Amino acid sequence: MNGPDPAIEINNVTFGYPPQPGVEPVLEDVTLRVETDDYLGVKGPNGGGKTTLLKIILGLIEPQKGQVTVLGKPPLATRSLVGYVPQQAWVDPSTPADVLDVVLMGRLGHSAWGWRYQRAHVDAALAALEQTDTQELAHRSIASLSGGQRQRVLIARALASDARLLLLDEPTAGVDMHMNRGLTDLLHRLNETIPIVLVSHDIALVSTHLKRVACLNRRLACHAATELTSDVVSEMYHGDVKWIRHDDNCPLADPGCGRDCTAGSDTAGVDKGERTG
């Protein structure tokens, strides 16, 4: 008997903007399988194809070659079941919306009345706020929140759509260390019931907290998080990488998140992704 469909299956995908003879594609022959319990990090240099890969999974663009399925179907057919959290979405300080209004946006695909929400939609939004420990913020102005609070609210908006898969783009960018620890613990908890794919430049995050890491620089190679060494990262960046290490007393050192996570000996600290050669 066959097992359940993977959350994401990408086979031999190639994509370029636009495809031209003699010009290298953004993604080339990329193959990736994300299981229903996966917690996968995607790491790579700027321009390496990370955003393009997310767009393909979301069905916003189609590859020139290869096949993609999300939750067993073409990406366009499952877009409403994929919760996407963009990188620190900008919020206009003059926006009058409160947190509950923002989370209810995740229900737009389920509401037959557009912006008019039935009680069931409000209940779903409140449940998503409770999942992210932000229920007490429901009637706060979204513009008044800290970076960490806002990121949790954006995750709640994604969950409110009845998401069966979470995609997050740099979720810890602009979040202070105290809020970062709480955010990583939240993601661990969510991963108990939903697969997560997370794009991040933070090597401490991907090597400490995630199950697997997809190294992407036009081509893709997957590793167990424990296998993410300086040699692997240097190969991905096609050159030496400057590593900045911090001892246990430094506030930038990653102490784990309450989920028995500990930084690996070769990747402890913070990687700025800087080339030295």
Describe what this molecule looks like in 3D:
The chain has helices at residues 50-57, 75-78, 99-104, 119-131, 147-159, 177-190, 203-208, 230-237; strands spanning 8-15, 27-34, 39-43, 65-70, 82-85, 165-169, 196-199, 212-217, 219-224, 241-244, 270-275. It has 277 residues and is of the alpha/beta class. It has a single domain (8-89, 164-275), classed as Rossmann fold. The strands form three sheets. The protein has a six-stranded mixed β-sheet with strand order 5-6-7-3-8-9, sandwiched between helices. Strands 2-1-4 form a three-stranded antiparallel β-sheet. It has a two-stranded antiparallel sheet with strand order 10-11. Helix 6 links the parallel strand 6 and strand 7 (196-199). Helix 4 (119-131) packs across helix 5. The protein is globular and about 55 Å long. Mean pLDDT is 80; it is low at 264-277.
